[in-house]
Amino acid sequence: MVVTCAQCGEKFEGKRSTAKFCGARCRQQSRRAAPAEQAAAIRPDRLGVVEIVATELASMGKTNTVLGAQALQLAERLTSSKDTGSAIAAVSRELDRVMVRLSAGAAKQEDQLASARRRRDEKRRAAAEASEA
Question: I need a surface site. Which of 52, 56, 63, 98 has the fewest CB within 10 A?
């Protein structure tokens, strides 16, 4: 069965009736191109994370600072389609910390996991001290 490759447009002999690509290279190129196209199609009318962070930085007057540049880099990384869910969560937490540091007079926020670890360590320390006494 002769099929046209969905990526490069070349005709090839398909081994299966469901064949779409002439080879592994075209299949991989198609997979890599799809997320970028899908990301651009999602909610084009809404402001992106990068634009929102840039607006907040401008309102604080912190656009041209090291932390401001770091916040923008983190926001750009959040919109990347190459990261896993756990990487996005870590970048999101770090962006939150940077934005808190940027905002003047804001109390240092601690995420729930760090707070739980701190409490656990305090309990262990107290238990160790009690067992020594």
Answer: 52
When computed from its CA atoms, the radius of gyration of the chain, rounded to whole angstroms, is 24
Q: 25 is written with which tokens?
A: 């290279």
The yes-or-no verdict on residue 9 having pLDDT over 80 is yes
Average pLDDT over residues 53-71: 87
- Which of the 8 DSSP states describes residue 2? E
**Statement to judge: residues 85 and 57 lie in one domain:** yes
SS3 at position 18: coil
Residues 67, 92, single domain; the answer is yes
Q: Tell me the C-alpha distance between 78 and 50, whole Å.
A: 9
Q: Are residues 32 and 74 in the same domain?
A: no
84: containing domain? 49-113
